[in-house]
C-alpha cells in the first residue's frame, strides 16, 4: 500500500505559539489530502480537504484562520495551528488520496500536539 | 454518503477467524464499502474495499451481501496485534474529488490469548 508520513510525531508547545505539521506522500503524488483531528476516546473528525495548488476546503465549525493549510506540491501538505491554546491539544492525522488505487485514502501515523 | 451501523465491540480468540459485521441498508449503487482499522495511538490503516463482489487481500476478506445492505470483514486468523477499532465506511466517488470518509464509532475488536 501507499505510504504517508507525518512530522513531527509529537510536539509540546506553549500557549500562544504556532505549530506546523507536515504530511507527505512518500511513494505517490496526491492532489488531494485531508486533515483530521481526534480527541481522546472519540472518532476522527475531518477538519479540511487540501487540494494541491488551491485553497483548502474547511468543514463547518473549523476556523480557517486558526488552522492554516498549505498544499504547495503533489507530495506535501502542511497544517499550521496558529496561536495554539490548550484546547487545541489533540491527535492530528492526515491522509492522502492515491489515484492508482481507486482513490483510496492512506493515512499518516498522526501527530500528537500538547499545548501547555 | 450512506451511514453504517456496527456493534460497539466484540472479541475472539487468537488464531480463530474474526467476523466483523456492518449494516449499510441505505447504500446506493455507486457507493463502495471501505474498511479501516485504528490501533491505539496510530493513524487509521486501510484494510480493504469493495463494490459488490467479494474481495480478498493479504489482510482480510470482505463479503458483501447480494443486496449490498450489509457486509462482513473477515480476519481469517486473528492475532493479538489485530486488537483495534475497525471502521466500516461507505463512500461514493460521484461527489467528485472531494469525496470524504466519515468515521463513525467503529467496532472495537479485542483478541484474547
Task: Describe the structure using short key phrases.
heterodimer; A: 116 residues; mainly beta; seven-stranded mixed β-sheet; four-stranded antiparallel β-sheet; 11 strands; B: 113 residues; five-stranded mixed β-sheet; 0% helix; 46% strand
Overview of this protein structure:
The complex is a heterodimer of chains A (116) and B (113). In chain A, the strands form two sheets. In chain A, strands 2, 4, 5, 6, 9, 10 and 11 form a seven-stranded mixed beta sheet that branches. In chain A, strands 1-3-8-7 form a four-stranded antiparallel beta sheet, with no helix packed on it. Chain A is globular, with a radius of gyration of 13 Å. Chain A has strands spanning 4-7, 10-13, 19-25, 32-38, 45-51, 57-58, 67-73, 76-81, 90-98, 104-107, 111-115. Chain A is mainly beta and 116 residues long. The mean pLDDT of chain A is 93. The mean pLDDT of chain B is 92. In chain B, 0% of the residues lie in helices and 46% in strands. Chain B has 113 residues and is mostly beta strands. The chains are: A mainly beta (116), B mainly beta (113).
Strand order of the largest sheet of chain B: 1-9-8-3-4
Task: Give the helix/strand class of chain A.
Answer: mainly beta
**Topology, number of strands of chain A:** 11
Biggest pleated sheet of chain A: 7 strands, mixed
Structural class of chain B: mainly beta
What is the assembly state of the chains in this entry? heterodimer
- What's the SSE pattern of chain A? EEEEEEEEEEE
Residue stretches of chain B low in confidence (pLDDT < 50, at least 5 long) are: none
Q: How many strands in all of chain B? A: 9
Separation, N- and C-terminal Cα atoms of chain A: 37 Å
The whole-number mean of residue pLDDT values of chain A reads 93
Helix percent band of chain B? under 10%
Described by the principal axes of the CA atoms, the overall outline of chain B is globular
Amino acid at each position: 500500500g501507499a505510504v504517508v508520513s507525518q512530522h513531527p510525531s509529537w510536539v509540546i508547545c506553549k500557549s500562544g505559539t504556532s505549530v506546523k505539521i507536515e504530511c507527505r506522500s512518500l511513494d505517490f503524488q496526491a492532489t488531494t489530502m485531508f486533515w483530521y483531528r481526534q480527541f481522546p476516546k472519540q472518532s476522527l473528525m475531518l477538519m479540511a480537504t487540501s487540494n494541491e495548488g488551491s485553497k483548502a476546503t474547511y468543514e463547518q465549525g473549523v476556523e480557517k484562520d486558526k488552522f492554516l493549510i498549505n498544499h504547495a506540491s503533489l507530495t506535501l501538505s502542511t497544517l499550521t495551528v496558529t496561536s495554539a491554546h490548550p484546547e487545541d491539544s489533540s491527535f492530528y492525522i492526515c491522509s492522502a488520496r492515491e489515484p492508482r488505487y481507486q482513490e483510496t485514502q492512506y493515512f499518516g501515523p498522526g501527530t500528537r500536539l500538547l499545548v501547555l | 454518503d450512506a451511514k453504517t451501523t456496527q456493534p460497539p465491540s466484540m472479541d475472539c480468540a487468537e488464531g480463530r477467524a474474526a467476523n466483523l459485521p456492518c449494516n449499510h441498508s441505505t447504500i446506493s449503487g455507486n457507493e463502495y464499502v471501505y474498511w479501516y482499522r485504528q490501533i491505539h495511538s496510530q493513524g487509521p490503516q486501510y484494510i480493504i474495499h469493495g463494490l459488490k463482489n467479494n474481495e480478498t487481500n493479504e489482510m482480510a476478506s470482505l463479503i458483501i451481501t447480494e443486496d449490498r445492505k450489509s457486509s462482513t470483514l473477515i480476519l481469517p486468523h486473528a492475532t493479538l496485534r489485530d486488537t483495534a477499532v475497525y471502521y466500516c465506511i461507505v463512500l461514493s466517488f460521484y461527489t467528485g474529488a472531494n469525496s470524504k470518509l466519515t468515521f463513525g464509532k467503529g467496532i472495537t475488536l479485542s483478541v484474547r490469548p
